[in-house]
């Protein structure tokens, strides 16, 4: 239960199968270590659609999605040392974790051994308060889970960095994307387009693997040196045994064996895309040439700030289409058809 609460406007789905519509929700008054943020923009991640539709079978309603949150600090609790009113800040996919386990102590809160608390569709560590996301006017978050948005990054274009950015930066860095490495990005969507920009800035030779040739010019403008359309059988054949690292952002389980075939000896394919269907992997897709299949989720808070500072240095932001919140249900339909270049971002002032 929220003892001292602030009412705020939000968009929510109140039950499975319902569209998003306006709902008044409550946020807690900032406690000693909390930051109260006036949200300015919130990106629209494919995970929002998976969860609104209960595709991961864990949805809780009413659900206010949104975990690519940027805004301005309104006020802070007594013990907050990192932020003050007026600061430009962001909140990504998580708002708490145990802070005591080995993962938390190693700045890997996303792999907390108790559990991380997701920004929405989750329950706080009190085991009773539901978390509600960024399709709303304000949010109260412990300062540990708030990051600083560098001054040279426009807030709207920076919003997608809080999920799409960190989710691709973390595995790129962990698996050593850099000079001399051949890196392929599967799926040029919200995550994929950030992965291309980040891998290129890290110094890797980047290939985009997309379903068609429609996005080739965009991919090259983002820094891709090569482009493979999987609809072109010959081009896909030529891409066999080519890559040290594949970051797979696809939200569908199909074609995994085709992508694994494109890895070199000792190469790794990292799944960040999270299809709800089981993956059809053949043993002989990984046994020859000692290939690996791995997964990765978002990134820790220290690494999220590192990613934002890297983006600031390299002038990297997301390609976005800003939308008012009342078109969100249509935006979901368009996202499912990959009809967005490359991320929808909600202007939260449109909630007023
Ligand atoms: P998105 O914008 O919809 O992009 C996904 C891209 O995958 C599409 O643009 C499309 O690229 C390709 N694609 C879609 N359907 C496909 C199909 N049937 N076969 C082959 N390719 C297909 O989605 P997103 O926001 O980037 O999210 C991608 C996935 O990552 C989602 O499953 C999301 O839940 C997950 N995710 C995971 C994490 C994590 O922590 N691991 C964090 C955020 C999101 P082309 O048109 O180029 O083929
Ligand atoms: Zn996301
Ligand atoms: Zn922990």
Which labels suit this protein?
single chain; 352 residues; alpha/beta; Quinone Oxidoreductase, Chain A, domain 1; Rossmann fold; 2 domains; seven-stranded mixed sheet; six-stranded parallel sheet; 10 helices; 28% strand; binds NADP nicotinamide-adenine-dinucleotide phosphate; binds zinc ion
| Corresponding CATH architecture of the largest domain | Alpha-Beta Complex
The helix tally amounts to 10
What is the share of helical residues?
A: 10-25%
Which CATH class of the largest domain applies here? Alpha Beta
Mean pLDDT: 96
Helix and strand sequence: EEEHEEEHEEEEEHHEHEHEHEHEEHEHE
Going by CATH, the homologous superfamily of the largest domain would be: Medium-chain alcohol dehydrogenases, catalytic domain
* CA-based shape: globular
What is bound: which ligands? Answer: NADP nicotinamide-adenine-dinucleotide phosphate, zinc ion
Amino-to-carboxy terminus distance? 26 Å
CATH topology of the largest domain: Quinone Oxidoreductase, Chain A, domain 1
Computed CA radius of gyration, to the nearest angstrom: 20 Å
Based on secondary structure, the structural category is: alpha/beta
Number of strands: 19
Percentage of residues in DSSP E strands = 25-35%
Largest sheet: 7 strands, mixed
Any idea how many domains? 2
Low-confidence stretches: none
What is this structure's SSE topology?
Blueprint: E1 5-12, E2 21-28, E3 34-43, H1 46-52, E4 69-76, E5 88-91, E6 94-96, H2 102-105, E7 117-118, E8 122-123, E9 130-131, E10 138-142, E11 147-148, H3 155-158, H4 164-174, E12 182-186, H5 190-202, E13 205-210, H6 216-222, E14 226-229, H7 233-238, E15 243-248, H8 256-261, E16 263-271, E17 292-295, H9 301-314, E18 320-324, H10 328-336, E19 343-347
Parallel strand pairs: 12-13, 12-15, 13-14, 15-16, 16-17, 18-19
Antiparallel strand pairs: 1-2, 3-4, 3-10, 3-19, 4-5, 5-11, 6-7, 8-9
Helix pairs in contact: 4-5, 4-9
This protein binds NADP nicotinamide-adenine-dinucleotide phosphate (NAP) and zinc ion (ZN) (2 copies).
């Amino acid at each position: 239960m929220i003892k001292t609460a602030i009412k705020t406007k939000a968009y929510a789905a109140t039950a499975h199968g319902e569209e998003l519509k306006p709902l008044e929700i409550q946020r807690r008054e900032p406690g000693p270590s909390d930051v109260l943020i006036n949200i300015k923009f919130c990106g629209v991640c494919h995970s929002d659609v998976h969860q609104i539709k209960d595709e991961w079978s864990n949805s809780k309603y009413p659900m206010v999605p949104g975990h690519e949150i940027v805004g301005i600090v309104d006020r802070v609790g007594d013990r907050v040392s990192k932020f003050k009113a007026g600061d430009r800040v962001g909140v990504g996919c998580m708002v708490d974790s145990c802070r005591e386990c080995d993962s938390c102590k190693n700045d890997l809160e996303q792999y907390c051994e108790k559990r991380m608390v997701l920004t929405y569709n989750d329950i706080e560590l009190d085991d009773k308060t539901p978390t509600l996301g960024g399709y709303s006017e304000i949010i109260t978050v412990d300062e540990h889970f708030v990051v600083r948005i560098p001054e040279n990054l426009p807030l709207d274009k920076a919003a997608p960095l809080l999920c799409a950015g960190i989710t691709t930066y973390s595995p790129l860095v962990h698996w050593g994307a850099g000079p001399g490495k051949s890196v392929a990005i599967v799926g040029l969507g919200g995550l994929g387009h950030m992965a291309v920009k980040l891998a290129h800035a890290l110094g890797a030779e980047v290939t985009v693997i997309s379903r068609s040739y429609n996005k080739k010019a965009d991919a090259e403008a983002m820094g891709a040196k090569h482009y493979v359309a999987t609809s072109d059988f010959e081009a896909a054949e030529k891409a066999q045994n080519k890559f040290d690292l594949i970051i797979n952002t696809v939200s569908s389980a199909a074609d995994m064996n085709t992508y694994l075939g494109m890895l070199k000896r000792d190469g790794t394919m990292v799944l960040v895309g999270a299809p709800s269907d089981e993956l059809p992997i053949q043993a002989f897709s990984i046994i020859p040439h000692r290939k690996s299949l791995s997964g990765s989720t978002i990134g820790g808070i220290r690494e999220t700030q590192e990613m934002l500072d890297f983006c600031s240095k390299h002038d990297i932001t997301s390609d976005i289409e800003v939308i008012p919140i009342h078109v969100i249900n249509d935006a979901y339909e368009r996202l499912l058809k990959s009809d967005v270049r490359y991320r929808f971002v909600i202007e939260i002032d449109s909630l007023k």
